[in-house]
Amino acid sequence: MKKEFLFATPEEQLSKLISQDLAINNMDFAKMALQTYGYYNIINSYKEPYLRPDCTDEKKYMPGVSFEQIFSLFQLDHVLRNSIMTAMLDLEEHLRAISAEIISKYFGTNPETYLNFNNYRDRFVKDSRFSLSSILNDLKKKVAKSNRDPIKYYRDVYDCVPPWVLFKDTYLSTLVNFIRLFKKQQKIDFVCKIYGVPPDIAQMDSVINLMTDTLFICLEYQNLAAHGGRVYNYIPNSKTRLNNKSSRDLENLIDNFNDRKNSYGLASLLFLLNLFKYKQPFEVIRSTLIQEVNRHCNIYPQDVPILANITGTQISQEYTVWISKTSKKYHSNPFCSGLSNQFSIPLDEAERLGYEPCKRCN
């Protein structure tokens, strides 16, 4: 028998949460949050770290946990997801540039030449969309029929669509799978450019595998972020081959390799991105993670071990507070009543600017 799901108003949802021992410190804020983002997106997605493990028949929250605490974790993940999307779009631009340069170097700029099947390695793939023939056919169709600029402009004006123009209209999924089908010499050149290493290192199978594995993990994170998935505790299905025997030569190439090769989740993503010569995607995610973890843990310091374990990262707190332009008080709780249009700054900076602690929340 199918389960029937009944609609519940925000007031009914809050009553249910209160019956499950969840504290609601600001009813107006909680109601607005539920109306804006939905019960499922906030509660169902982020309640797990806060549920009592001894209550299996009926969900109950651990003592002291509040709606605002769960919403803060939701907010952390929301901001982090946006940063991952930004970082992956930036990385995508970088991969397009490298790929176009390598293809132009070896096969020229005429699509009839550089999209020749024999230039690449045909290999079995689970998804037929990303077979060599499918990728090349898709790219040839774009060259011949795309009505989007700049492809259409170059076709109409120059009767030629060079690879750097064609790749402007190529998804990261197609690009990553295409790079995987490069022949050995093109992969070596690609590794040289993306890691900034000489050819004698780039030709190692372990380094080439590291590059390929990293790109597929990045693709998985981009797809997750693009579809609104939860990222702070995500463990990718794509894996690296860092524990294989063939990867032992990486120990001499990567600092603290043995300590970091078993990292997971966000820690693993950051480790892999930091190996690239181009650091911007790494910096975007790392700075956002630090900022959001500090924001959340400054309000809820009891969550430090929870977040450290889930994200696989070490957490060191930097005390931040919330201020607004309409008051000279600083707040430890961004949901403090009367606070609006707030923004966070380091505590020492707030004190230097003459802000004093709010008596309600400090």
Description:
- The chain is mainly alpha-helical.
- It has helices at about 10-20, 25-35, 40-45, 65-105, 110-115, 130-145, 150-160, 165, 170-180, 185-195, 200, 205-225, 255-260, 265-275, 280-300, 305-310, 345-350; strands spanning about 320-325, 330, 345, 355.
- The strands form 2 sheets. Strands 1-3 form a two-stranded antiparallel ribbon.
- The longest helix is centred in the first third of the chain and has 41 residues, at about 65-105.
- It is elongated.
Gap from first CA to last CA: 52 Å
Total strands: the figure is 4
- Kindly name the structural category: mainly alpha
The coarse overall form would be elongated
Q: How many strands, which pairing sense, and closed or not: the largest β-sheet?
A: 2 strands, antiparallel
Low-pLDDT runs of 5+ residues are: none
Order of helices and strands: HHHHHHHHHHHHHHHHEEEHE
**Radius of gyration, Cα only, in angstroms?**
25 Å
Query: Order of strands side by side in the largest beta sheet?
Result: 1-3
Count helical runs: 17
Strand content: under 5%
The chain-level mean pLDDT equals 90
Give helix % range: 40-55%
Give a brief description.
Helix content is 54%, strand content 3%.
Topology overview:
Elements (H helix, E strand, L loop, with lengths): L9 H10 L7 H11 L1 H8 L20 H41 L3 H4 L17 H14 L5 H8 L4 H4 L5 H9 L3 H12 L3 H4 L2 H22 L30 H4 L4 H10 L5 H20 L4 H8 L8 E4 L5 E2 L12 E4 H6 L3 E2 L5
Parallel strand pairs: 2-4
Antiparallel strand pairs: 1-3
